[in-house]
Specification:
By secondary structure, the protein is of the alpha/beta class. It is 48% helix and 11% strand. The strands form two sheets. It has a seven-stranded parallel beta sheet, with helices on both faces. Strand 3 (92-95), helix 4 and strand 4 (114-117) form a beta-alpha-beta unit. Helix 9 packs antiparallel against helix 10. The longest helix is centred in the middle third of the chain and has 26 residues, at 278-303.
């Protein structure tokens, strides 16, 4: 049986597949303030477009505003709406921090129907009086799990309900939060009246889920890594013992985790405000912080390797913290440094395994697109250099905007450009930090590697 498509006066013929679960959500969201929780790749933006055209059809004199946290997402949504909605180009307006205030004033007051903007711009322009939300029949909040505390979404929703006689809100997210309390905060901030929640197991959703094969690959650390690991664990154990013997650490040394240390740090900082014996509290904080650094050092060694551990050790030595001095004066630390900075550095076995996995995938299908997620920017940079040397690999790094310790970030324009190159096939491997996980419309891929 062939695909069926949405038939609507404002939707271009043959562009939007008709899906029952989307239709049911749209029917609800046109009547009540709705939070839509839907797994990634199941068409949250399409739902937004379908709700928007239905609302516009019944409120022809009004406008629609869709917000997203970043400029690439804003531009992506504008493109999706423009591609699917049967209106002239001038009815789709993207407004971001790069749009001057003078131009924004004109655009907000134009006769265009669909607006796409970052929430901070909307919040600022409402406060400045150059934008009145009374003209909008629908506000769409993408990545709505951010709508807590002082995030701009909260203030925009509040002003919208003040300025508009009949406000309608649609909130979209794939990850609403891990607790009921967090979800309630989002619902309260956006005045949500109804939640539409779908999982990949729902019968009306299942037909649209592509089957995924998951394979876990394990490696053994080389002897040199095991030696460094033993040295770091020895230093860590000593710091934890001090905290235990001085009654700061409540769990057994062998069972202590990073989470335990983070919670201990919070307790110690509270004690500073209420304890007269400040000397021992400051000393405990130094040991707690040193232990956390050593935990992190161990994690980088075992999951990333020497190439990523090297810049971390340089940062430790350049930072004159008491906790770092506590580590550096230990003779075992000098031994760690000597081994880590040996020349040439010993590669983590995961790197060779990754190369093999990439080569095998490209042999199976030379047109494959491959997405690699890793936690650390230094690892991203190193893996790009390694994979560049493989025949047929066209690879690029994909990181956030902020520049960190000599590691240059990517502007939003560059992020958009890289995604477009990946979509067109100019790139076939993308190595990304977690910035690639939220909202961006990454093209369909044949292989995803979670490096950690």
């Amino acid at each position: 049986m062939g695909l069926s498509y949405v038939v609507h006066p404002l939707i271009r013929e043959g562009t939007v597949e008709d899906r029952l679960y989307q239709r049911n959500i749209v029917n609800v969201a046109t009547k009540e303030n709705t939070l839509v929780i839907l797994p990634t790749a199941l068409g949250k933006t399409v739902i937004a477009a379908l709700v928007a055209v239905e609302v516009l059809l019944n409120n022809k004199s009004k406008k629609i505003l869709m917000m997203a946290p970043t400029r690439p997402l804003v531009l992506q949504h504008e493109e999706t709406f423009r591609k699917n909605i049967n209106l002239p180009e001038n009815h789709f307006i993207a407004i971001t921090g790069k749009t001057t205030r003078e131009k924004r004033t004109k655009l907000w007051n134009s006769s265009s129907k669909f607006y796409f903007a970052t929430p901070q711009i909307v919040k600022n322009d409402v406060a400045a009086g150059i934008l009145n939300l009374k003209d909008f029949a629908l506000l769409i909040f993408d990545e709505s799990h951010r709508a807590v505390k002082d995030y701009a979404y909260t203030e925009v929703a509040k002003q919208y309900t003040k300025q508009c006689d009949y406000p309608l809100i649609l909130a979209l997210t794939a990850s609403p939060g891990s607790s009921q309390e967090r979800i309630k905060m989002v619902c309260d901030s956006l005045l949500i009246e109804r939640i539409e929640y779908k999982t990949e197991e729902d019968p009306d959703v299942k037909p649209y889920i592509n089957p995924i094969s998951i394979e876990v690959k394990q490696v053994s650390l080389p002897a040199e890594y095991q030696l460094i690991s033993a040295l770091i664990k020895g230093m860590l154990s000593e710091k934890l013992k001090w905290l235990k013997e001085n009654n700061f650490l409540k769990v057994a040394v062998s069972r202590a985790t990073k989470k335990d240390l983070i919670e201990l740090g919070e307790e110690l900082r509270k004690l500073l405000a209420s304890n007269s014996n400040l000397g021992v509290i400051y000393q405990a904080l130094a040991y707690q912080s040193a232990a956390l650094t050593l935990f992190h050092m161990l994690e980088i060694l075992e999951t990333q390797g020497m190439y990523t551990l090297r810049p971390f050790l340089i940062r430790v030595e350049s930072d004159d913290k008491k906790s770092h001095n506590l580590i550096m004066k230990d003779a075992r630390y000098a031994e760690v440094v000597k081994l880590v900075f040996s020349d040439p550095p010993i590669e983590h076995p995961k790197v060779e395994l990754l190369k093999k996995v990439i080569e095998e995938q490209l042999m199976k299908n030379k047109n494959s697109r491959i997405l690699i997620f890793t936690q650390y920017r230094d690892t991203v940079t190193h893996l790009v250099e390694v994979l560049k040397k493989i025949d047929g690999v066209r690879v690029e790094r994909f990181v956030g905007q902020a520049s960190k310790a000599g590691d240059e970030g990517l502007s939003q324009e560059k992020q958009v450009e890289i995604i477009e190159d990946f979509r067109k096939g100019n790139l076939n491997v993308l190595i990304s930090t977690s910035v690639g996980e939220e909202g961006l419309d990454i093209p369909e891929v044949d292989l995803v590697v979670f490096y950690e």
